[in-house]
Amino acid sequence: MNSTDDSQKAIGEFYVQEIIDYIRHLKGDPHLAPSDALTAFGALSLAQREPVILQAFYNELGAAGEAANRVGSSGYQRGFDAIATLFPSGAPYAGDLSLFFSKIYTLAGGDINLLVPGGLINAGLTSAPANAPKKAASELGIVAQGTGSVRVFVRDDFQVNQSRVFTLQGGDILMWSSQGNIDAGRGAKTAISAPPPQFQIDSQGNVKFNAAGAIAGSGIRAILTGKNITPGNVNLIAPVGDVNAGDAGIGSAGNLNIAAARVIGAENIQAAGVSTGVPVADTGSLAAGLTGVSNVASSVAKSTDDAVKSLTQNSDRGLSFLDVQVTGFGDGDQGGEVVDLRKRKKEP
């Protein structure tokens, strides 16, 4: 058996064990025999099997994105195989998900899983219409406010625009676009999302004020709003498209993996953990250019100071005049004003 077969066997065994653990938890019997667990899983309704199926599906997409940064474009195949299994070719998949002026939130724990196998997802407007009702940032976007993750699969683009895709308490963010781009949008980093505060009573009867859902920013971000929480990771995958940080930016409190044909806006991408697939922002040429500007400015300032000092030193000999004649403006030498100025120049 070759290494590929060994790898596939290991993957299969992993998901078999996931199914067994799921059924044992569902039945409340941690010692249920593996064969009985697998039989019980086959007897479940689709709705009951769905959590395991979706978890396996998104695991495969995420693993494919990580593999692509290790072995190249062939790493994406694992994800495409999972898509072909869950969404066989030939089926009439169609339709988009548009959240122009609305939201998808989980408030007290729970994942957000979005599947659009035949279209795109638009998480918000590029700009609100003039006659649109006023909505706070906390009323827009896709946010797991509790301990949940956000997982997205689309065939075409995922566009954030002026909105946000956040996890706030250690949840992961995973996005896969088979044929399109992932764009973090043009939202303001100062946009405040402040949902109504919650008052909680602990076992001792103490009333606590909880404002953990209050955040600022836009774009795609796994954020930590509490203590003693394992940071969430961000995995963005666009095998043939772009991952664009835009003005809003991409951020991860944990690790960050980006696998795409092109990554745009690397200077607006941050990760507290390990970052993979993000090109180093090229700021050297900008720094060099600013250094040159600084040198020019210093030279001009020094020349001006020298001229002022000279005028001051010669002030006892009467007034001095400085006659400045402009003899050219680069490529605009032939302009009429230049010619007029040159007429003032005395012939030798």
User: Strand portion, in percent?
Assistant: 15-25%
Overall body shape: globular
Helix % is: 25-40%
Number of helices: 6
Number of strands: 20
Order of helices and strands: HHHHEEEEEEEEEEEEEEEEEEEEHH
Radius of gyration: 30 Å
> What integer is the average pLDDT?
80
Distance between the termini: 94 Å
The helix/strand class is alpha/beta
Describe the largest sheet: 10 strands, parallel
Domain count, please report it. Answer: 2
Uncertain ranges: 282-305, 317-326, 332-345
What does this structure look like?
- With 348 residues, the chain is of the alpha/beta class.
- The protein folds into two domains: 86-281; 285-343, no CATH class.
- 31% of the residues lie in helices and 23% in strands.
- It is built from six helices and 20 strands.
- The chain has helices at residues 3-27, 34-42, 46-71, 77-86, 284-313, 336-343, and strands at 97-98, 103-106, 112-116, 121-122, 141-144, 150-154, 158-159, 164-167, 173-177, 182-183, 192-193, 198-201, 207-210, 215-216, 219-222, 234-244, 250-252, 256-264, 269-271, 275-276.
- Strands 1, 3, 4, 6, 7, 9, 10, 16, 18 and 20 form a ten-stranded parallel sheet that branches.
- A hairpin with a 5-residue loop joins strand 12 and strand 13 (207-210).
- Helix 1 packs across helix 2.
- The radius of gyration is 30 Å and the shape is globular.
- The relative contact order is 0.08.
- Mean pLDDT is 80; it is low at 282-305, 317-326 and 332-345.
